[in-house]
Specification:
Strand 3 and strand 4 form a beta hairpin. The chain has one domain. The strands form 2 sheets. The chain has a two-stranded antiparallel sheet with strand order 1-2. Strands 3-4 form a two-stranded antiparallel ribbon. Helices cover 59% and strands 7% of the residues. By secondary structure, it is mainly alpha-helical. The longest helix is centred in the first third of the chain and has 23 residues.
Length: 167
């Protein structure tokens, strides 16, 4: 882990990427299993929706993040590793429209498979628990030490923010 003296995570490692993508894969796989049992066409649509939601997040959310802004031409963060930085970096806070898109995109990806998951109670339980664990774990272990202070989910204590900005 690459943390500075304030405990903030300045750089992600490849193992962070592997961990977070494995955690994020559980709800996607459980949703995919429920959908593909009924229709391959709807499964393909679900994959397209997921990819579209990721592109929306990448453009409107990630392009504001210091992990996107600084460094080379490839992303090195917990969810995107080795992905080209194809959008212009936009330091600073997200606009209201960007915040809305950043909440709407994952919400669509979460809500889309519920129709099929309701018919598969075991997969629905796995899906809901894994979404909860993904969000709770990110909030607990990443958002509390994130260097992107403008992020709406950032929960770094104010005294650590202040100390970090003074350095």
């Amino acid at each position: 882990m690459h943390e500075n003296e304030t405990g903030l995570k300045e750089h992600h490692q490849f193992r962070d990427f592997l961990y977070w993508n494995a955690v994020a894969a559980v709800p996607v796989v459980s949703a995919s299993l429920a959908i593909i049992r009924i229709s391959i066409l709807w499964f393909v649509m679900y994959l397209i929706v997921c990819i579209a939601c990721l592109l929306i997040l990448y453009k409107f959310y990630c392009s504001h993040c210091p992990h996107y802004i600084y460094g080379g031409h490839l992303m090195r963060c917990m969810f995107f590793w080795g992905v080209p930085k194809i959008f212009a970096p936009r330091p600073g806070p997200l606009s209201l429209a960007e915040k809305t898109l950043s909440i709407a995109a994952p919400s669509v990806a979460i809500l889309f498979p519920l129709y099929w998951l309701i018919g598969e109670p075991g997969l629905l339980l796995i899906f809901l628990l894994s979404v909860f664990i993904l969000v709770a774990t990110a909030r607990r272990y990443e958002c509390r030490r994130c260097v992107y202070f403008e992020c709406p989910a950032n929960c770094v204590p104010k005294e650590i923010r202040k100390r970090s900005l003074e350095d």
